[in-house]
Design brief:
Blueprint: H1 36-47, H2 50-54, E1 64-69, E2 75-81, E3 89-91, E4 96-103, E5 105-111, E6 122-124, E7 130-136, E8 140-143, E9 148-152, E10 160-167, E11 173-179, E12 182-189
Antiparallel strand pairs: 1-2, 2-10, 3-9, 3-11, 4-8, 4-10, 5-7, 5-9, 6-12, 11-12
Bound molecules: fe (ii) ion (FE2).
Amino acid sequence: MSVSSSPTPSPAAATSTPAAGFAATAALRAGAAPTQAELFDFVRRAAADAGLIASLPLDPEGRTWVRLDGPGGSEAWLIGWPPGTGTGWHDHAESVGAFITASGELKENSLAVRLPTDGWKTLELTEGVDRSRRLPAGQGRAFGRHHVHEVLNESQDRHAISVHAYYPPLPQIRRYSRSGPLLRLEQVERPEDWQ
Ligand SMILES: [Fe+2]
């Protein structure tokens, strides 16, 4: 996940091997898809695992990530964010998810509106749909299907580390550019683009 890239990693630094030493231990209901609350519980516990957080290699030049073994077959990532990096606007299609800051501070800008699924290239957003929240260490959120956001480390000098989980595993990510109220669909990424 470089600056223009994802909530999910781009191929260069990604590893698809789940990190050793940390596995989902949430007591999931047998056979049921993990809920947003269960994904949030997973990221919260992972973020509190000091050994896991310390195991992420950090690179001052770009984001780093390690795949985790998320609960119930979910897709999970530990991500490092150098100062000034971000994802750009994107969504997670039909997946629900959760993420939390483990160290440093992240900012999330999001849209409180459901976008049409397909058939458009440019949309003009109405006033009042923008939301913004600061997520210092220990703070995070869960989100539902079609959540549109960007995540940033606005710090000038401090790395941030976060934990993310998605279910179902991301089938695709749609990437957008934003110019004032205009949102433009730029690209659709599929799992082979980041795994
Ligand atoms: Fe995201």
